[in-house]
Amino acid sequence: xxxxxxxxxxxxxxxxxxxxxxxxxxxxxxxxxxxxxxxxxxxxxxxxxxxxxxxxxxxxxxxxxx
Amino acid sequence: xxxxxxxxxxxxxxxxxxxxxxxxxxxxxxxxxxxxxxxxxxxxxxxxxxxxxxxxxxxxxxxxxxxxxxxxxxxxxxxxxxxxxxxxxxxxxxxxxxxxxxxxxxxxxxxxxxxxxxxxxxxxxxxxxxxxxxxxxxxxxxxxxxxxxxxxxxxxxxxxxxxxxxxxxxxxxxxxxxxxxxxxxxxxxxxxxxxxxxxxxxxxxxxxxxxxxxxxxxxxxxxxxxxxxxxxxxxxxxxxxxxxxxxxxxxxxxxxxxx
Amino acid sequence: xxxxxxxxxxxxxxxxxxxxxxxxxxxxxxxxxxxxxxxxxxxxxxxxxxxxxxxxxxxxxxxxxxxxxxxxxxxxxxxxxxxxxxxxxxxxxxxxxxxxxxxxxxxxxxxxxxxxxxxxxxxxxxxxxxxxxxxxxxxxxxxxxxxxxxxxxxxxxxxxxxxxxxxxxxxxxxxxxxxxxxxxxxxxxxxxxxxxxxxxxxxxxxxxxxxxxxxxxxxxxxxxxxxx
Lengths: 66, 259, 228
What we know:
- The structure holds three protein chains of three kinds.
- Chain A is 85% helix and 0% strand.
- The termini of chain A are far apart.
- Chain A has one domain (6-65).
- Chain A has helices spanning 6-11, 16-65.
- Chain B has seven helices and no strands.
- Chain B has helices at 11-43, 57-84, 87-119, 127-148, 152-185, 199-231, 236-258.
- In chain B, helix 2 (57-84) runs antiparallel to helix 3 (87-119) and helix 3 (87-119) runs antiparallel to helix 6 (199-231).
- Chain C is mostly helical.
- Chain C has ten helices and no strands.
- The longest helix of chain C has 30 residues, at 97-126.
- Classes of the chains: A mainly alpha, B mainly alpha, C mainly alpha.
- The B-C interface holds B 82, 134, 137-138, 140-141, 144-145, 148-149, 154, 157-158, 161-162, 164-166, 168-169, 172-173, 176-177, 179-180, 183 and C 154, 158-159, 161-162, 164-165, 168, 171-172, 174-176, 178-179, 182-183, 186, 207, 214, 218, 221-222, 225-226, 228.
């Protein structure tokens, strides 16, 4: 470990703001794009299944009306 | 010779391949991000000149490398999609573009946050920062062109053409910016990477590059899966997949109710 | 299908049609020029009228204004033909699409680029350019504006099928213009210091040659995507 105490670690020899700013924004962006991909998978599944249900309903209604 | 590749032109096979590869990439990404960040932030020694501010290198360099790597892989995929008319390569272009844009954005933000203590300004028209900015514009162009089309088939092909045009232009842009920079700024900016980097900093950097590469791989695979599903939604295998999924969910709900 | 026309005839007829149309509705030629003039006269108002300062900034101002004013007409290259269906007819005709593209790009250049080159001495006077730099500005515009039309045509071909292609077009095309901007302004800067600027001109010429060979293919595949 390069730092003696936790507050040393946070202050990064006076450069804390810049180091934590870049690591923080990096983590935020990585997390953001990961969550976006994750959620869009669920969204895709939902959208496709909804569309399939709708198509099935239309088919059924057509058969009943005959 | 290339025959073993042919099955992967089929969307279902490619989807399955994504599913098999995904856990490996994800595990490597998570493990190496944790190791790389802890090592880089806590255990790597401070630079004698830049003190602790140099630690930004552990995310700035990997994201810059990956931003260009992602663009070149996107261009290769675009080339394959246009020459051999492979739908999956086209979808890969769409899957890579947002991830590459995110990498470029990280490289820009960390570059600015590093520039402030080192150069005294958030933004300096340094050759590499400027090229990154233009790279971001190119990524945004590909993404917004894809989103502008109603018909996703033509959208994919149009983005492929744009990605290729950008890839041909990128070296020209890069060298012209570098040349412009030496012309206008001279030697006012001290270069960071003078000489070889010490092993105690080199290895954490390598781990972080691996981490970013694995992360990009993971997210691209996830996005590629989504694109394949969206494009193939009328195929029976997608229907089968979805009915399976809903059955599983219903089961889960049933289990919870039982508890 | 039999080819009725030789390639030269085809080139001339496509070129003639576009130029003639532009001359019929004069605004297409005059508006970009007026825009260029207004942008250039805005700069002294914005940064102050000191002749030294203006002469220092002039290369950048002239070239940025030139980039923006070629953007104005860019959307028009294929849009009218796309909307009345003649673009589709041209694409299914037995003639090579890249030839048609070159004809249309040349027409676009003669409508927007050439007048800019011819009037650039006047704009140079407004910005206090000396005669050396003026000469360089004219030559760089002469080599650079066709390059702008060629690269821009790629973006125009990609966005022609879209309802709101205009803003997207500038987002796609302007980053690709950066090398032209850098080398052209640097040539004018160098000439203002009475140094030799043939190096920059050679690079601009090389870029023009590359674009002349590659851009028509990119544009024709873009058009095929947009029209299909």
